[in-house]
Amino acid sequence: MIMQAPLGTPTTHDDIEAFAEHLLELVNSGSLALMISIGHRTGLFDALAERPPTTCAELAQAAGLDARYVREWLGAMVVGGIVEHQFGGTPELGTYTLPDAHAASLCRKAGAANMAVFTQYIGLLGSVEDDIVECFRRGGGVPYSKYPRFQEVMAEDSGQSVLPVLEAEILPLIPGLVDRLRLGIEVLDLGCGRGRALMLLAERFPRSRFRGIDSSAEAIAWAREQALAHGLENLEFDVADAAVLADEHVGRFDLITTFDAIHDQRDPAAVLANIAAALAPGGTYLMQEIATSGSHHRDIGHPLGPTLYTISCMHCMSVSLAEGGAGLGATWGQEMALRMLGEAGLAAVEVHQLEHDLQNEYYVCRRSEDEQW
User: Fold this and answer.
1) What is the pLDDT at residue 356?
2) What is residue 372's predicted lDDT score, i.e. its pLDDT?
3) Where do the domains of the chain lie?
4) Is the pLDDT assigned to residue 369 strictly greater than 80?
5) Are the beta carbons of 95 and 53 closer than 8 angstroms?
6) Which of 180, 231, 237 is nearest to 205 (CA)?
7) Beta 346-352 vs 279-290: how paired, if at all?
8) Average pLDDT, stretch 321-332?
C-alpha cells in the first residue's frame, strides 16, 4: 500500500517514481484478476491442483478446454507468480504446477478461503464501464438487467461466506433462535436472491416455515426450481418489491433476515419500516451489511476498501439510482445503518463481526416497543 504523505510535503522524483510503480502494479494486478476469474470459471485451478506437474496439452484435455487458450492463460499465470513452470525446451514440453500454498486460496475445495470467487466481480463490473461513465456525465444509474451474472456470483460468494457458518455462527448471534427454529417459527428473507440460505434452513428446520422475496424474476425462478427439486414444502418464494408490504405480512414473522441487501434497495427506509411492521411481537431482525464506516478517511486501510467502494459505485449505488432510488451504496456505513434502523422503529441490540468475514457486519435488531427473546 502507498502511504499518504502529510499535506504540504514537497514532491520528489522518488515520490513520482514510487507512485508510477504502484500504478504499474495495479495494472498488472487488474489483469491477473481477470485471468484468475477465468481460471476459476473454467475449472483450470481445480484441474491443476489435482494433477502432478502437467503439460499444457494434458491440462487442456483434463479441463475439456481449447489448448491454445489454456497456453496463453498459463503464460499470465506463470509471469504473474501464480503457477510454477518447468521449461522443457519448448512450451509444449514444459510442465506446470499449482503450489499447494496457492491452491489453498484458488480452488473450490478451499471453501471460504477461495479468493478466486471474488475476482469474478472485476470482469462483471468492467462489462458495464461504458454505462457507468455515462452515469458520471448525466446522473442516473445502471439497471439490474445489465448485470446478467450478478445473482450467480453473489450466490457463490454467499455460498462461501454465509452458508458454511449459518447455523454454527450466524444464527447463535440471536440467543435461543436455533431452539425456536426447531420448534417451528415463521421466517422471511428479503432480497433473498437465489435463496440458498433459505433452502439450507428449510431443510434443517422442517417445522418452521420460510418465505423469500426478491425483485429479480430470474433469481426467484431458479430458487423455486431448486426448492421443488429438493421437496421443500415449507419454503415459498415471491417476486416483489420489498418497499411495498403486503397486508398478509404485517405482524407475521418471528424472524426476518436480509443478507447484503438493504443498501441497494430503491427505498431502503421503506424496506426497514416494512420489516419493523412485519415482525411478530418478540420477533427479531438479523441484518448482514458491508463493514465500512461510511467515512472515506476512516476507511483508509480497510483490507477490502478499494474493492468495496468500486462495487458500490459500479453496482449497488447504481442499481438503486436506476430506479430513482436513494443510492445508498454498499459503503453506507455503520453510523448511517444504526440511524436508519432507529428511524424505522428498530433497535440495534448488537453489532457483530465474525472472525472469518472481513467484509460484513451482523446487526441483531428488534421492534423498539418489544422485549427481546
Assistant:
1) 77
2) 43
3) 13-118, 127-367
4) no
5) yes
6) 180
7) unpaired
8) 94
DSSP string, 275-332: HHHHEEEEEEEEEEEE---S-TGGGTT-TTHHHHHHHIIIIIHHHHHHTT-----TT-
Q: Indicate the residue type of 276.
A: A
DSSP symbols for 128-169: THHHHHHHHHH-----GGG-TTHHHHHHHHHHHHTGGGIIII
Q: Which of 2, 22, 29, 20 is nearest to 122 (CA)?
A: 29
**CA-to-CA distance for 36 and 371, rounded, in angstroms?**
49
* Count of positions (residues) in the chain: 373
CA distance 228 to 290: 32
Question: CA-CA distance, 73 to 119, in Å (whole number)?
Answer: 15
The rounded Cα 244 to chain-centroid distance in angstroms is 25
3-state helix, strand, coil split of the chain in percent (to 5) is: 50, 15, 35
| Mean pLDDT of the residues in the chain | 91
* Banded model confidence at residue 326, pLDDT cuts 50, 70, 90: very high
Give the residue among 276, 268, 246 at the shortest CA–CA distance from 348: 276
Cβ atoms of 311 and 125 within 8 Å: the answer is yes
Q: Which residue has the higher pLDDT, 370 or 54?
A: 54
The distance of Cα 183 from the centroid of its chain, to the nearest Å, equals 31
Architecture of domain 13-118: Orthogonal Bundle (1.10)
Is 154 within 8 Å of 193 (Cβ atoms)? yes
Residue 295 neighbours by CB under 8 Å, 6+ apart: 333, 335
Residue with cell 432507529: 342
User: Which residue reads 506446470 in cell numbers?
Assistant: 96
Q: Measure the CA–CA gap between 16 and 26, rounded to whole angstroms.
A: 15
Domain 127-367 CATH class label: alpha beta
Residue 102 zone, left/alpha/beta (φ > 0; ψ -120 to 50; rest)? alpha
Instruction: Tell me which H or E stretch contains 361.
Output: strand 360-367
**pLDDT confidence band for 93 (50 / 70 / 90):** confident
